[in-house]
TrEMBL record, chain A:
Protein known as: Cytochrome bo(3) ubiquinol oxidase subunit 3
A GO molecular function held by the record: cytochrome bo3 ubiquinol oxidase activity
The species this protein was found in: Ancylobacter pratisalsi
Annotated membrane topology: Multi-pass membrane protein
Annotated transmembrane regions: 34-54, 74-93, 100-120, 140-167, 188-207
Record note on quaternary structure: Heterooctamer of two A chains, two B chains, two C chains and two D chains.
Gene Ontology biological process terms in this record: aerobic electron transport chain
Coiled-coil ranges (or none): none
Cited function: Cytochrome bo(3) ubiquinol terminal oxidase is the component of the aerobic respiratory chain of E.coli that predominates when cells are grown at high aeration. Has proton pump activity across the membrane in addition to electron transfer, pumping 2 protons/electron.
UniProtKB/TrEMBL annotation, chain B:
Main location: membrane
Cellular component terms (Gene Ontology): cytochrome o ubiquinol oxidase complex; plasma membrane
Subunit structure: Heterooctamer of two A chains, two B chains, two C chains and two D chains.
Lineage of the organism: Bacteria, Pseudomonadati, Pseudomonadota, Alphaproteobacteria, Hyphomicrobiales
Organism of provenance: Ancylobacter pratisalsi
Protein name: Cytochrome bo(3) ubiquinol oxidase subunit 4
This protein's encoding gene: cyoD
Compartments where found: Cell membrane
Gene Ontology terms for molecular function: cytochrome bo3 ubiquinol oxidase activity; proton transmembrane transporter activity
Alphabetical list of Pfam families matching this protein: COX4_pro
Record's keyword terms, sorted: Cell membrane, Electron transport, Membrane, Oxidoreductase, Transmembrane, Transmembrane helix, Transport
Residues spanning the membrane: 26-45, 57-76, 88-110
């Protein structure tokens, strides 16, 4: 049953078709598939960056970036994300050495930096909204909250994922499946850091130059 | 360079699903580079040393592009060999779409703004 044979009556060379799937080791193409997912995410952010680029100057007589943004806060935020990137790298290195406890510690440190990032961002959003700079105020603010908020939402889901994986690693140890999951989250986390480079450059720094 | 070596060292593992996770040296180099590449544009904007907004804008865009490449190489371990080059192919395709999306939107909308409603262009002038 593994192959169907078609021999033609004329006596030509028979053609073989392989019908059954090859055996593949579990997860052999996960990283490529996950990479393609990240690339689709990248297109979402490209569209949001394009929207911000088009609408970023439409203040509707409302406040502009110069009045709203606090670069010290953004620099602190960027540092948090950068620290969380390298601590995740350390978690991957200890994972390779199969040291469960140390890996969990590095993952926890990464999670705390991620939480700090989210906390600072929520503080910034709260501050903006309390000043009346809500998403409804102008096209610039709508685009700003959509772009930065989508990134923040990604970080939030990354944190939920990180917590889930920490529970799984604590329960099952560093089995192959858990290593694969941690590898995917590693790509996700570093990818978010790459997107943040675009955010702090195009939204915050360029905004201050307008 | 180290990411390059690391990729070569792990290349033969690809057949059984192991992925390169980088080395301590690679992560530290990437981190130090990205701290510098983040600090300089912030300093350029906050101190205003260049005294010219356009020059500063181009400088910080340059730093952002370099930093993205640094993150790709040292943190995401991009190279031409992983998955037989398919990750790089997907990245190339995505970059083309990103450039079309960004450049196309900005170009079209800029011309719409300048050509269609000249008196309403700057909303700040409306009382």
């Amino acid at each position: 049953m593994s192959s169907a044979t078609m021999t033609e009556a004329s006596g030509e060379v028979p053609v073989f078709y392989e019908v059954d799937e090859h055996p593949h080791p579990e997860g052999h193409s996960t990283s490529l598939g996950f990479w393609i997912y990240l690339m689709s995410d990248c297109l979402i952010f490209a569209a949001l960056f394009a929207i911000y680029g088009v609408l970023g100057g439409s203040y509707a007589a409302g406040p502009g970036p110069r009045e709203l943004f606090d670069l010290n806060l953004v620099a602190l935020n960027t540092a948090m994300l950068l620290f969380s990137s390298i601590t995740y790298g350390f978690a991957m290195l200890t994972m390779e050495k199969d040291r469960v406890a140390v890996t969990l510690v590095w993952l926890a440190v990464t999670g705390l930096f991620g939480l700090a990032f989210l906390g600072i961002e929520l503080y910034e959003f709260h501050h903006l909204i309390s000043e009346g700079a809500t998403p409804q105020r102008s096209a610039f603010l709508s685009a700003f909250f959509t772009l930065v908020g989508t990134h923040g939402l990604h970080v939030t889901f990354g944190l939920i994922w990180l917590t889930t994986l920490m529970v799984q690693v604590a329960q099952r140890g560093l089995v192959t499946a858990n290593k694969r999951r941690l590898m995917c989250l590693s790509m996700f986390w570093h990818f978010l850091d790459v997107i943040w480079i675009g955010v702090f450059t195009f939204v915050y720094l360029m905004g201050m130059l307008r | 360079m180290s990411a390059h070596d690391m990729g070569a060292a792990h290349g033969h593992h690809d057949t059984h699903g192991a992925e390169p996770h980088g080395s301590l040296r690679g992560y530290v180099i990437g981190f130090v580079l990205s701290v510098i590449l983040t600090a300089v544009p912030f300093w350029l904007v906050m101190s205003g040393v260049l005294d010219n907004a356009t020059a500063t804008a181009f400088a910080i865009m340059g730093f952002a592009v370099v930093q993205i490449v640094v993150h790709m190489v040292f943190f995401l371990h991009m190279n031409f060999r992983s998955e037989g080059g398919w990750t790089m192919l997907a990245l190339g395709f995505t970059l083309i779409l990103v450039v079309i999306t960004l450049a196309g939107s900005l170009w079209v909308m800029y011309h719409l703004n300048t050509n269609m409603m000249p008196s309403l262009h700057d909303m700040r002038q409306i009382p």
